[in-house]
Design brief:
Blueprint lengths: L5 E3 L17 E9 L2 E8 H6 L8 E6 L15 H11 L5 H13 L3 E8 L5 E7 L5 E6 L4 H15 L1
Antiparallel strand pairs: 1-7, 2-3, 2-4, 5-6, 6-7
Length: 162
C-alpha cells in the first residue's frame, strides 16, 4: 500500500442519497482501496442494503450517528490527540513508532476505537481506528514493536507531551 496513514472525516450525509444523518441514525462506513489510496463512503442503512454487493470494500462497519460537538479553541498544552494528528499529517517514517503508541494511548482513553486490523499483501499490518466523538478514521500502520522497544518509545512520547 502506497498510502501509509490517513485521517478521513465522517460525513454528515449519505454518499448515495445525500440525505443528512440525524442523531441516532444507523449508518455504515465503507473503506475502499483504489489506485493506491483509501476512499471512505458513509451510507445510510437503506443505501447500504441496496449497494452492489459484488464490489467488496477493504473494510466496513456499522455506527450510530452523533452530531459532532462544536469546535473549541485549542489549548496551549499539546495533547496526545493533537500530537497524533500532527504526526499523521507529516507522514514522516521517523514518527511511525510514536504514531502507533499515541493511537494505543488514545484507545486506552476510549477516544479511539479499533475497528479492524488488516494485513497488506506485503505482510504489513494496518490498524483501522475510529474516533469515538467525531467518527474520523485513522489508518495507523503497526510497526510491530518488540517488547524492549516499547518503553523507549513511551518515554519519547511522554517527553513530547511534556
Amino acid at each position: 500500500m502506497n498510502q501509509d496513514w490517513s485521517i478521513q472525516h465522517r460525513a454528515d450525509r449519505c454518499a448515495v442519497s445525500a440525505e443528512p444523518f440525524r442523531d441516532g441514525d444507523t449508518f455504515y462506513t465503507l473503506l475502499y482501496y483504489e489506485k493506491g489510496e483509501f476512499r471512505r463512503e458513509d451510507l445510510s442503512e437503506a443505501a447500504f442494503k441496496a449497494r452492489n454487493e459484488n464490489i467488496q470494500p477493504f473494510s466496513f462497519w456499522r455506527s450510530k450517528f452523533e452530531t459532532p460537538p462544536p469546535a473549541t479553541e485549542a489549548l496551549g498544552k499539546q495533547t496526545a490527540e493533537d500530537l497524533l494528528r500532527r504526526y499523521m499529517a507529516e507522514q514522516s517514517p521517523e514518527h511511525s513508532n510514536a504514531r502507533y503508541i499515541l493511537a494505543v494511548m488514545l484507545e486506552r482513553k476510549k477516544l479511539l476505537k479499533e475497528i479492524e486490523a488488516r494485513r497488506g499483501e506485503d505482510g504489513s499490518l494496518t490498524r483501522i481506528y475510529e474516533h469515538t466523538k467525531t467518527g474520523e478514521v485513522f489508518l495507523v500502520p503497526d510497526p510491530q514493536l518488540r517488547l524492549e522497544q516499547i518503553a523507549e518509545v513511551q518515554a519519547q512520547v511522554a517527553g513530547l507531551l511534556g
